[in-house]
Amino acid sequence: MAEFTLGATELPDLATGCAVLGAGGGGDPRTGLLMALQAMEEHGPVRLASFDDLPGDGIVMPCGGVGAPTVSIEKFGNGGEGKRLRDRVEQLLDRPVVALMPSEIGGSNGLIPIVWAAELGLPVLDADGMGRAFPEMQQVSMHVAGISPNPCVMTDERGNTLVIETIGGRWIERVVRAVAVEFGARACSTEYLLTVEQAREAAVPGTVTLAWRIGQLLHGAQSDPVGELLAELGGYRLVQGKVVDVERRTTGGFVRGSAFIEGLAEDAGHSLRIEIQNENLVALEEGRILASVPDIITVLDGESGAAITTERLRYGQRVSVVALRCHPIWRSERGLATAGPRAFGYEFDYQPVEELHAAA
User: What's the pTM?
Assistant: First the structure.
């Protein structure tokens, strides 16, 4: 692609799109947006790189935050986390990092690597490890592709830095999550380090520009932002209504709970329950599954179309709940084993949202 830079003009659109793709998770994009705007003011814009722009054997550093999104509303980083991660990675590998990449494009985690890239003078690869947001660290496309999670480096805002090696992705999740809880339920990390050539096959391509285009669409919509978004992405509106209850708790480094939406207007008489683990996992109506992971379930403001993260859901909000198709990698056998319903303990098999919609 032609060289493109992300500057202060592009960031609000990007933040809006990251929130939509986040399935309610990834952290509140407003905090990431403010940090990115400050980084742009201090260091200038960030180059957005394609695979072809970078050396094939160069190291790509997937990175972002780990922990409970409710905590990240009030507990920010200090801005030095990205440099500590990069420096330790280069020390371990004895090779330079040529680009950063969001571990997940969803929410604030789609923006934090841009903050660090601005400070480090590095480009951001136009790709990520999910095409959305997932709650657990092994739920990345690199794991599905067989990339090792080792070495994992994590740090916190105090400067604590650890190098972790485990026997596999599920143990990376268990160990890093436990440490993040001790850090105060929020930390930053990099894992599944890979070369640019490996990223061609192992990462989800084009997601930074996709998020940016989604934000442009919503900010430029004339009368029905939600409808225009669904038409553009081929998504499905599950219900239009009002949030009538939210049950939410922060435990074990996750936000867990449920949100309940009662239908309004043409959806009067319908009710929806969304089950949450950082992200929206399953949408049900009286026990009937309307959508589930790995497809993207997002709660949008009924008027503006702006996504509402799980930690920002409140009684009385007028919303549209929508479902978008996930990237095809998640519909593979290994993808579903990693991030399908049964990976979260549900006793049912995944059905693509378009099939559920057609059967309704």
Answer: 0.94
